[in-house]
């Protein structure tokens, strides 16, 4: 196996490389994925070292907090979470499609981009956009030999969710290895929406939450009704079905 790892942090890349088995040929590239010119430089380096690309995983994501008047908060999240993905597609799609055998593109979304819980509008909007991009890419490549998948992790113990500062994994969270295994299983089944459960939230609970959220539009409810006091009883009945 040959692996190209990209991150903005050279330190994190070094740790990741050393954690991999010696049988994996790994090259690391410290790049800011929100910058298209850095993707172009990355493409040249990857093609020189590896030739083609069989599997492209676009996992860019940052989580910040801010208010409605803080436009920097919106720009930073959208530049990384949305353009980090779009830049990767624009840069590497021709390379992926040049391969003479089946290839895959996996894009990491978020449940927050589907059910849209209150508290972080920029992050939710960015992940909603990523979902739309992945859906359109899948449709446009439907007759090709490149499969597209939207990976939506549940609660996963990573640096972004506390793993960088907390040593012990919370009981409700999955480990990254569990997410990877679930992804592999669902890709073998040619599933596009790979919605991961975790140790707290089952697949059935996820489905009910997603359907309730879609019902806000279909049933002309107020937005984000699942979190509104006036809908509490109705939501509890729905989730208990």
Total DSSP helices? 9
Overall number of strands: 6
Low-confidence stretches: none
Distance from N terminus to C terminus (CA atoms, Å) equals 46 Å
Major beta sheet, strand line-up: 3-4-5-6
Question: Helices and strands: which structural class?
Answer: alpha/beta
Assign a percent range to the helix content. Answer: 40-55%
Shape descriptor reads globular
Backbone CA Rg = 19 Å
Task: Describe this entry's structure for a reader.
- This protein is of the alpha/beta class.
- 47% of the residues lie in helices and 13% in strands.
- The chain has 9 helices and 6 strands, in the order E-H-E-H-E-H-H-E-H-H-E-H-E-H-H.
- The protein has helices spanning 10-19, 36-50, 71-81, 83-97, 112-115, 121-140, 176-188, 203-218, 232-240, and strands at residues 2-7, 25-30, 55-58, 103-108, 146-152, 193-195.
- The strands form 2 sheets. A 4-stranded parallel β-sheet has the order 3-4-5-6, with helices on both faces.
- Helix 2 (36-50) runs parallel beside helix 4 and helix 3 (71-81) runs parallel beside helix 6 (121-140).
- The longest helix is centred in the middle third of the chain and has 20 residues, at 121-140.
- The radius of gyration is 19 Å and the shape is globular.
- The relative contact order is 0.09.
- The mean pLDDT is 94.
Walk me through the topology.
Elements: E1 2-7, H1 10-19, E2 25-30, H2 36-50, E3 55-58, H3 71-81, H4 83-97, E4 103-108, H5 112-115, H6 121-140, E5 146-152, H7 176-188, E6 193-195, H8 203-218, H9 232-240
Parallel strand pairs: 1-2, 3-4, 4-5, 5-6
Helix pairs in contact: 2-4, 3-6
